[in-house]
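Q: Could you fold this chain for me?
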Amino acid sequence: MNPTIKTLLAAASLTLVAAFPALAGERNRTPVVDGPTAMARARVAADVLMSSYEPEKAWFPSSWWNSAVALQTIGDYMQRTGDRRYLAQLDNTFEKDKGVFPAGVLSGDPLLGNFTSRAIDDSEWWGLTWLQAYDLTRDPKYLDMAVTIANYVYGYWDPGTCGGGVWWNAERTYKNAITNGLWIRLTAELHNRIPGDTLWLGRSRTAWAWFQGSGMINADGLVNDGLTDACTNNGQNVWTYNQGLAIGAGLELWRATRDPKILGTVRRLADAAIGPNALVTDGTLSETCDATDQSCDDNAKQFKGIFMRYWTDLVDTTHDRGYAAFLERQAATIWNDDRDAANRLGTRWSGATGDGHPNVFDWRTQASALSALVGDVPTLTPLASLAATLSPAQPVVMPSASGATTIPLNLGVSATGYFPLLALASVDAPTGWNATPRATLVTLQPHGNAAPVNRSVPLALTVPSSATDGHHPVTTDLVAAGLRFTAQADVLVAHAIDFDTGTVDENPWLFDPDGSQSNGVQNRFADGHAHFTYRFPFPVDTSAAHVTLTIDAEFLVEASPDNVHWTTVLKEDRPVTDGSNKADRSIDLTPFLGDGTGGSKPVYLRVSDAFPDDGWGGRVYHVKANITQ
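A: Sure. Below is the predicted structure, expressed as structure tokens.
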């Protein structure tokens, strides 16, 4: 080891141990997931989620009701942790999206204003989101909006069919569990926030009584999706969010009434959910579509998070140790098994994946899993927390025939609390690799929880030419007084580029996904003004490079040596929406190879929409590159 590094490590260790003696016996122990750690994990995951927020349209592209739930989840995070950095985004969405919009702008349905539409349950999701914003800010405009939405929804309460219940849609074709679970929760929350209210309490009581007698709760205590035209249980799938909303509805109404019968029903619903042959597989909350031979659609990706929101409420309300243990297990499973190096959280909390149905990571799955991490944060907000990330989290190294490759990394450190923190950051890299500096002291001066303080530490990682192909972890352990956090980068060493889009093999090459989407294997597309960018760090001794894209639709492909100056290399000049132009297209990247500064000759390839107004942008199925060294 370099003598300077050894001295720094020794000095840092002595400084920390002298200042914080408890650390002396903790250096080699397995970290405990305590309150500060749970808070730090939630912060890291929340930041990843909010990186997908699109401020111009003030949503998460491209889903309307899902955006409401994602924003509500961020509200839950802020309320639980004291972090207030994202209040502006909540207000941005409120002000920009409360108007009238035609179909296709923010939703497949026309939006009627005040966050209402023909989809009654969508309207209710937004009502609950604005009640969360009211709880955070006490700004009456949010409460007023929730009342406006609830009045709109009440127009679809219909005792003339099935004896009551709110219709799922404006066409009045279906009465289901989610719409009515949302209605009970929404009306009970309004009562609990409006002094002297009796109107909303009466409506909530009536809806709860109707729901209990509707038949949607089956003999096993599980909530099926809805009712048939004959007003009987339709026997459709038991989704986690239906069960969760039934629990959450009862809890809020119990707070309004203190009726022990309601709480007893809530407990039976909860016990049924985690009982045999219900919603848990090997201890992990699961949807039927989480099976490795299936894929959850964009709606179902968020269902488990909704369940965990109301399960957290159950734990906070009952203080039941068994319920708390289930919550803690979900949070631990997500963090340990369902998280990549970029702290993205997937749809299968067990982490299971498969070639045909891979574990999907997007903002919907992020919001869903974040709910469990938020629930794991103690109700008594920790006085301090320490978190760290490495960026890029999934770098790629394509070694040259001889000579090492050096890539920059950035250690981002964040902290909350009320006292200065002195943290030791130490980097662990594979044998034969070198990280500079290997250890460093980081001083942070937090001022509470509302705005975590941030520090950035530049690192350099040198990878030898002999490094073997595959994934190599690089970790940074951060230790301060009673606080500990580990950040990780997953370095891919590769001598070839050959991957399907929509798979984990694509992730290291995907430099900037922007607003692109992937609907499974061999499917990544960018519509409108969205794009996605690949980065190919060709070896320093590369003399020529070509890439072949399997691509269709209305593509615009540009290349750049620096991610700043772009040249169009491929463009579809016709409006093609049926995939008839799917083909392998080769692009010569040789003119874009740089001078090899930094040990590589990176080329950036950006795919976007040649006709951004019609929503059929470039879709890439497969990427393969050939190089000459």
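A (continued): The first helix runs from residue 3 to 19.
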